[in-house]
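User: Just a sanity check before I run the rest of the batch. Below are the structure tokens for the first item. I only need the designed sequence back.
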């Protein structure tokens, strides 16, 4: 029906192919006198989306989630995933060859403690693990009387005979009209952070940090405009960007050379070794720097300083230009969302649409804006039991028809040069059950509680997370993911360091953009999630004794009133939703065609008028 440009629906490899790969990999481990090996879902920079050449975990196990780990021993093998991917892993991984284990509670070191034997040699690639991860593995090995072995070359790459070549996406300049701050000013702010760290230089091991600092974007991984690269920023003197020259046009090279020397990626190791030989203290990002970097700095006589990359926080606080761009991007995206939601209301009741049809339609409406660069992640389009898989990715095999009585959960986002979007809506197809309404309303009340929250400056996401869960907890239910994540400015849709979750310890600062996405998932039945993006802003409270913050909602799309148990909402909650829908109508309606305007008018009717099924001509 629609041609999809940025996502596919093909099945991952499975069956005989994966069995042969695991057998060949074990043979290679025996040849290298290794008792086992650890395969993370990672590249050298711990990116969420990795190039095809770095998809080692998927190639070996069949699991395609964005986070996970596999450990292969001579007689045992396990895939470790978090709560988002438990159902997906069970479907994708061959249970005869692999066991599916928790990634967090308990962590993999507990499994290793049971499975490792004295004298075992567990291998790992130090370029694919952070030093903290390597230390956890070493502790588990030591406790079992085994040895952790850093390999010089990855044994999986040896048996992956058809491994794709590394990417060579073209680098583009991210102009000041989008970035809002020059490279020189950013470098000055970064250097100001090095003095209190006691650092002589900083390694930018995160390509997002390189892209932000030097105002460039790239095309090396799916869905995030990343130029895979490193940079070395000394306290004094010119920085160096390490990037494959084949990615650089003359204009991109000229742009970079205004503020940095430009060298090939292979030059990073000798540059770090030379600096370390002077005894320099070199700051490394705990979250993204490979253990290999710590090892080579230490071996050369330098002092690795592991901690938070200061760029991460600088990048998370959006400047006025980036905030204005995000608002423009969300208004543009709202037009596509309104057309899509109207399309679903018009067509889905027939039972002819599928999950893939929904994905293709939404991407088509976004392409019609003329500004879409990519989707910000593969669209999650799940109906019925598929909606209960938190990070479900529809394939041609799993593709399900959208039938009356179902809920359709559609989680999607767009990459525009002026901003990144991420939005989830749950849509009733026909008449929802009382249980669906109850669960949806509890999720909605949690969503509203976050959107209406006011909190002292310096509060963290962990302090807010309970607000989103309170109404679910009252029914003895919960959701197994964070309530919200940071969002970049034409960068990663999942950006640190701030988040709304029990692990969110970074203070929320004005200018940060975070998602607000509580949910509920009934395995085998349906899933519910409501997500808007929120901007942290100053809030004025009469008589307040300290600076206060709140959220300004950026996303502009109707929330399905047919799923609301109106009697469960407070007057304040009804007021919030009516005000939100009035704002959606005010900002989006002038940008729509006449038919979609009529649909939007009904979809955003005040709740006092009662939920009705929106109609479209």
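Assistant: Here's the designed sequence for the first item:
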């Amino acid at each position: 029906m629609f041609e999809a440009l940025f996502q596919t629906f093909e099945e991952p490899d499975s069956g005989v192919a994966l069995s042969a790969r695991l057998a060949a990999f074990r043979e290679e481990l025996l040849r290298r006198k290794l008792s086992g090996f650890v395969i993370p879902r990672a590249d050298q920079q711990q990116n969420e989306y990795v190039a095809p050449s770095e998809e080692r975990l998927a190639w070996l196990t069949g699991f395609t989630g964005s986070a996970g780990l596999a450990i292969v021993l001579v007689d045992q093998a396990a895939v470790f995933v978090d709560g988002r991917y438990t159902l997906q892993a069970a479907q994708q991984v061959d249970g005869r060859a692999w066991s599916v284990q928790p990634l967090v509670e308990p962590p993999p070191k507990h499994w290793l403690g049971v499975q490792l034997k004295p004298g075992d040699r567990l291998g790992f690639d130090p370029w694919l693990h952070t030093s903290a991860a390597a230390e956890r593995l070493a502790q588990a090995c030591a406790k079992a009387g085994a040895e952790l072995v850093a390999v010089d070359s990855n044994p999986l790459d040896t048996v992956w005979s058809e491994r794709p070549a590394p990417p060579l996406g073209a680098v583009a300049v991210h102009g000041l009209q989008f970035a809002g701050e020059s490279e020189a000013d950013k470098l000055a702010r970064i250097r100001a952070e090095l003095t209190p760290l006691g650092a002589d230089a900083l390694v930018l091991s995160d390509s997002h940090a390189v892209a932000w600092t030097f105002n460039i974007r790239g095309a090396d991984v799916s869905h995030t405009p990343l130029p895979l690269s490193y940079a070395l920023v000394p306290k004094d003197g010119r920085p160096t960007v390490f990037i494959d020259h084949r990615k650089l046009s003359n204009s991109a090279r000229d742009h970079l050379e205004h503020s940095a020397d430009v060298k090939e990626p292979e030059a990073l190791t000798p540059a770090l070794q030379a600096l370390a030989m002077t005894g320099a203290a070199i700051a490394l990002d705990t979250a993204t720097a490979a253990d290999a970097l710590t090892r080579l700095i230490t071996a050369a006589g330098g002092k690795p300083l592991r901690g938070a990359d200061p760029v991460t926080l600088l990048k998370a606080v959006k400047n006025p230009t980036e905030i204005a761009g995000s608002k423009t991007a969300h208004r543009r995206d709202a037009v596509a969302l309104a057309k899509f939601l109207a399309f679903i209301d018009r067509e889905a009741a027939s039972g002819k649409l599928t999950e893939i049809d929904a994905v293709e339609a939404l991407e088509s409406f976004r392409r019609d804006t003329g500004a879409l660069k990519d989707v910000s992640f593969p669209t999650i389009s799940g109906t019925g039991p598929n909606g209960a898989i938190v990070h479900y990715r529809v394939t041609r095999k799993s593709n399900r028809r959208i039938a009356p009585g179902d809920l359709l959960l559609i989680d999607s986002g767009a990459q525009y040069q002026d901003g990144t979007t991420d939005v989830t809506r749950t849509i009733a197809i026909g008449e929802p059950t009382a249980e669906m309404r109850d669960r949806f309303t509890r999720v909605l009340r949690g969503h509203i509680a976050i959107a209406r929250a006011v909190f002292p400056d310096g509060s963290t996401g962990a302090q807010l997370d309970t607000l989103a869960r309170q109404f679910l907890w009252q029914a003895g239910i919960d959701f197994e993911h964070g309530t919200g994540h940071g969002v970049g400015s034409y960068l990663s849709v999942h950006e640190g360091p701030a988040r709304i979750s029990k692990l969110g310890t970074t203070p929320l600062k004005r200018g940060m953009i975070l998602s607000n996405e509580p949910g509920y998932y009934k395995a085998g039945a349906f899933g519910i999630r409501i997500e808007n993006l929120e901007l942290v802003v100053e809030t004025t409270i009469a008589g307040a004794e300290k600076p206060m913050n709140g959220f300004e909602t950026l996303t502009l799309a109707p929330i399905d009133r047919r799923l609301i148990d109106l009697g469960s909402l407070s007057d304040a909650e009804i007021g919030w939703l009516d005000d939100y829908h009035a704002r959606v109508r005010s900002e989006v309606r002038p940008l729509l065609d006449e038919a979609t305007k009529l649909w939007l008018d009904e979809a955003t009717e005040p709740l006092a008028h009662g939920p009705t099924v929106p109609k479209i001509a």
